[in-house]
Amino acid sequence: MRLVIARCAVDYTGRLNAHLPLATRLLVHKGDGSLLVHSDGGSYKPLNWMSPPCRLESEEPGEEEASAGVAEVWRVTHQKTGDALRVQIYEILHDTNHDLGVDPGLQKDGVEADLQRLLAEQVDLIAEGATLMRREYPTAIGPVDLMVRDADGVAIAVEVKRRGDIDGVEQLTRYLELLGRDPHLAPVQGVFAAQEIKPQARVLAEDRGIRCLVLDYEDMKGIESGAPRLF
Fold first, then answer.
1. Maximum C-alpha span of the chain
2. Phi and psi for 167 in degrees, rounded to 5?
3. Which tens digit of pLDDT belongs to each residue from 5-62?
4. Most buried of 3, 70, 138, 214 (most Cβ within 10 A)?
5. What pTM did the predictor assign?
6. CA-to-CA distance for 214 and 229, rounded, in angstroms?
7. Which residues touch 145 (CB under 8 Å, ≥6 apart)?
């Protein structure tokens, strides 16, 4: 990974056009070829970027650019769409390369992983008489936390979160859309399970026919009394 802090201007051309005027920014060129342009705000989100598959080439600035102070030009071109990110670099303030090695991938929060395991052992909380089909049930866009069947054999996809928000509902919605295409599973019901479900997430889930299950983590571990509530 190459990290460059530079005074630069950036232009994106292709399916849309965007311009970033001259300012000091962080340019992140990753090993997968992608380039991200960051400012000192906006948290993790870049101002602009080019995703792989893409290729970065360094060019000499044109005569007019050079007279304006441009020292180097980066052109990052997407190999499938032809979209291009053109970076005019006026001054490089910092330039380093780092080998990050192989990333082990995201590991779920310990409580969230425990919730999933405990719920898999206590599937009656999802539906009376339910049986577990599989944990981490695979789909083309990632695994569903739990797949169960109720006493009538209806398939239920369960997404487990520590704190349930709108993103989790959207994630489960995408899973349900894919799983519903499988004739061996359809129709598939959805259950959104979490220790805490935000009001907006509950409204969205119920509007889409997804049931919300509030989990009592301590009770599921058998530490104290209390019952999860299915709404």
1. 76
2. -60, -40
3. 999 999 999 988 999 999 999 999 999 899 999 999 877 889 999 988 999 999 999 9
4. 70
5. 0.53
6. 5
7. 116, 135, 136, 137, 158, 159, 160
**Strand residue runs (E) in the chain:** 2-13, 18-29, 35-38, 48-50, 54-59, 72-78, 84-97, 131-137, 144-149, 155-164, 188-197, 211-214, 229-230
User: Do the beta carbons of residue 109 and residue 162 sit within 8 Å?
Assistant: yes
Task: Report yes or no: 165 and 143 within 8 Å, Cβ to Cβ.
Answer: no
- The Cβ of residue 213 has, within 10 Å, a number of other Cβ atoms equal to 20
Q: For residue 83, what are the contacts with CB-CB under 8 A and spacing of at least 6?
A: 12, 13, 14, 15, 50, 77
Burial of 31 (0-12, 13-18, 19+ CB in 10 A): exposed
